[in-house]
Specification:
single chain; 6 helices; about 140 residues
């Protein structure tokens, strides 16, 4: 009776913990394209969290925009996302690629911002020196 009890518990444990791997969709999105789609979704999600009204006023629906841009539909994305998400290592690789791309773009944006700030500073400095030189000329009037 004791062995029977252990066997029943073992079978129920194994039987309840089986999660079937999702079937590979017929129209599975390639990993590279999936990472591009995820990249766009991350950017649009960030934009939506910053100022949602700007997107709405310009008539941009983030998900529809991404689907149209990549030539996919919501079902294809959902099936592909579910398929890739089941294998955590593959999904982690996709997320890491997206993260690396975002970091690369962030570094580029920061570099451009610094360059823009340097240009603005040099323009201000030139304008100040021009104003200072005109003040000296006006102050040194001939009697």
């Amino acid at each position: 009776m004791k062995h029977f009890f252990y066997i029943v518990i073992l079978i129920s444990f194994v039987g309840c913990n089986t999660i079937d791997r999702p079937k590979k969709p017929k129209n599975l999105i390639a990993k590279d394209k999936m990472s591009e789609i995820m990249y766009d979704l991350y950017l649009l999600n960030a934009a939506k969290s910053v100022n949602k009204k700007v997107l709405e006023l310009n008539g941009i629906m983030p998900l529809e925009y991404v689907y149209k841009k990549h030539g996919i539909d919501s079902l294809q994305f959902a099936e592909s996302n579910t398929y890739y998400a089941y294998d955590t290592e593959v999904y982690a690789q996709l997320v890491e690629k997206v993260k690396a791309d975002l970091e690369k773009d962030k570094a580029l944006y920061e570099k451009l911002t610094e360059e823009e700030q340097r240009v603005k500073d040099s323009i201000r400095k030139a304008e100040r020196s021009k104003k200072d030189s005109t003040k000296t000329i006006e102050g040194d009037s001939i009697p």
